[in-house]
Design brief:
The protein is α/β, with parallel strands linked by helices. The protein has two domains: 117 residues, Rossmann fold (3-Layer(aba) Sandwich); 95 residues, Orthogonal Bundle (Arc Repressor Mutant, subunit A).
C-alpha cells in the first residue's frame, strides 16, 4: 500500500483529500504546517507528498528543498507561471492549481507513483565507500566483501535509500516486510547491531547511528 503525506493547513481540503485517497486504497499521513511536516518526515517515509504552499510557519517554498528522494506534487492556489517553473526546477515533480478536479489529481498521483516504482529499484546502492549489491545480498568496502542475511540487506537497503534523514523503527519494519517478513520489533535492534559489526570489522568505521527517540540513519563519516 502506497503512503501519501498531505501537507495542508486548510482542514476542509485536507479532509477531502484524505477521504478520497483512503477510498482509493492509499495510506494517508497528515501535517498542517511546514514544521509539523518535518517532524512527520523524520519518523515516516511516505511514497509521495502533496504540498500546499501557503502554510503557517515554514512555507511550502521553504519546505520543498528539505524533502529529499520523495516525489512532491504541489497543490496550491498560486497560479503564476514563473512560480510554477521555479518550483518544478526546485524539486517538485508536478503542480496542480486549486481549485482542482480530484480525478485529475488522482491521475497525476498514479503517474508519479508508477515512475517511482520503475525508477527507484537499483541493483546497487552507494554510501561513501560502501556499496550494497541487492542481487547478491553483499556489501563491499574497497575490495572486501561482506555477506549479509536477507534481513540485514533489507535494513541496510532502506537506510541507504534515505541517507540524509533518520528512519523510524516502525517505518523500517513496515518497509522491509515484503523483503523479509521474519523481522520483528524485538529482533530489529539485533539485526542492525549485526550489520554495524560486520561493516565495522572490515573498515573500523561505524556506518549506522541510532537517533534517540526516532530510529536509525546512515552516519556521516
Amino acid at each position: 500500500m502506497y503512503c501519501i503525506l498531505i501537507i495542508e493547513d486548510d482542514l476542509h481540503i485536507g479532509n477531502m483529500l484524505e477521504e478520497t485517497l483512503t477510498a482509493e486504497g492509499y495510506s494517508v499521513l497528515r501535517a498542517f504546517s511546514g514544521t509539523e511536516a518535518l517532524l512527520v518526515l523524520s519518523q515516516k517515509t511516505p511514497d509521495l507528498v502533496l504540498l500546499d504552499l501557503m502554510l503557517p510557519g515554514l512555507s511550502g517554498e521553504e519546505l520543498l528543498p528539505k524533502i529529499k528522494d520523495i516525489p512532491v506534487i504541489v497543490v496550491s492556489a498560486k497560479a503564476d507561471t514563473a512560480g510554477k517553473v521555479d518550483l518544478l526546477i526546485g524539486g517538485a515533480v508536478d503542480y496542480v492549481t486549486k481549485p482542482f478536479e480530484m480525478s485529475e489529481l488522482l491521475a497525476r498521483i498514479t503517474v508519479q507513483l508508477r515512475r517511482k516504482s520503475q525508477g527507484t529499484e537499483k541493483s546497487e546502492l552507494y554510501f561513501n565507500d560502501l556499496t550494497l549489491n541487492l542481487d547478491t545480498h553483499t556489501a563491499h568496502i574497497g575490495n572486501s566483501e561482506i555477506r549479509l542475511t536477507r534481513t540485514e540487506c533489507a535494513i541496510l537497503k532502506l537506510l541507504m535509500q534515505n541517507p540524509t534523514r533518520p528512519v523510524g523503527k516502525l517505518t523500517i519494519l513496515e518497509k522491509i516486510s515484503e523483503d523479509t517478513p521474519d523481522c520483528t520489533e524485538r529482533s530489529l535492534k539485533q539485526h542492525i547491531s549485526n550489520v554495524r559489526k560486520k561493516l565495522q570489522a572490515v573498515s573500523g568505521k561505524d556506518y549506522i547511528e541510532a537517533v534517540y527517540g526516532i530510529g536509525f540513519k546512515m552516519k556521516n563519516i
